[in-house]
Design goal:
The structure is a single chain. The chain has 158 residues and is an all-beta fold. The protein is 0% helix and 51% strand. A hairpin with a 2-residue loop joins strand 12 and strand 13 (148-156). The protein is elongated and about 65 Å long.
Length: 158
């Protein structure tokens, strides 16, 4: 967050542009607007410093996908933490937009929760699962989308 320049680098490692910081520090909450404008918050570094918001529009920008790599496949990741008590995070990647159903089953195959049921865009997603009202034990979570089905085990320990 400190240095002489602020750099924009493509996901292939090519330098796109650099901006001199002139003694300012960059806040870690920079973000892109839908039109590709990059918003950067700068400050002098002192406790009572004012922030300056800079908006940068790169003329070579065509879409956010230049900066955010999209998954090449569907995948259901291992929940974290595992074992968990009482909550855990389940993450998954979608290579394309589609209807997503993410369901949790007990070890006997009974549905205990439906975490997602609807359309979602391609990219990485995560959802929290709270097992507060469930007994300790092994649970199965299953992702279904666009012909892809995957299941994983997770362990609730109380």
């Amino acid at each position: 967050t400190t240095g002489i320049n602020y750099y924009a680098v493509s996901n292939k490692g090519n330098l796109l542009w650099q901006m001199p910081l002139n003694g300012y520090q960059v806040d870690n909450t920079s973000s892109f607007g839908a039109d590709g404008t990059l918003y950067i918050a700068l400050h002098s570094g002192s406790i009572d410093s004012n922030y300056t918001l800079i908006a940068i529009r790169d003329s070579t920008f065509t879409s956010l996908s230049e900066f955010i790599s999209q998954p090449e496949n569907f995948s259901l990741l291992q929940n974290y933490p595992n074992p968990f008590n009482p909550s855990t995070t389940i993450s998954y990647k979608l290579k394309e937009t589609g209807r997503v159903v993410l369901t949790v089953f007990d070890i006997m195959g009974r549905e205990v929760a439906q975490l997602v049921n609807g359309m979602q865009s391609s990219g990485e997603h995560s959802v929290s699962f709270d097992g507060t009202n469930l007994p300790s034990g092994m649970y199965i979570y299953q992702l279904k989308t666009n012909g892809y089905i995957s299941s994983r085990k997770m362990l609730l320990l109380k």
